[in-house]
Amino acid sequence: MTDKSQTKLQPPRLHPIFEQCCKESFQEFFSDSGIRSVALETENSIEQFDELQSLVAFVGFTGENIKGSLTFLSQRTFFTTTHPNIQMQVPVEPQDELDWAREVVNQILGRVKNKLLAFNLPFSVSTPSVVIGHQLENPESLNLQNRLFGFQTNRGNVVINFSVVMAEGAQFNRVADSGMGPQKEGKAILF
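User: That's the sequence. What structure does it adopt?
Assistant: Structure tokens below.
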């Protein structure tokens, strides 16, 4: 007999359409930023990070039928070497790394948001935040759909966690073009 107190429930996976929107958005961001990346096949291959040299950026979102968060974890060197200042040969200061980490999650979530507009799943985005460290835990919720994505990049490894709660009955039904169109992707507005 199994002791239920020792059994950890696995959260349900993201809806396949939602997961595909996420994967496409991550790869588009990496490509548009000049970052070569390879998606890791299993969540078990995601490496541990040095807590003092890691940055965790996160942003929440909420809409009528959807809410959740995007969390991005990588070593500080990822944010230093991918910062737009590098292209202008301007030094990247510690505060610049923090600003860029917030902008990275903002840009990725903006891409996901644009893709979900085609399924009539609009949402609003909160202000991105960043912390130093690596201890993250998802809240225990039976309604929480969760997906951990890992990437090996030429700038360091990246872990992206996407958690979402869908309203009961929410559907991924593609809608006709509303004419509103998504926002232009890839414009950096540092916080």
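Residues 1-10 have pLDDT under 50 and may be disordered.
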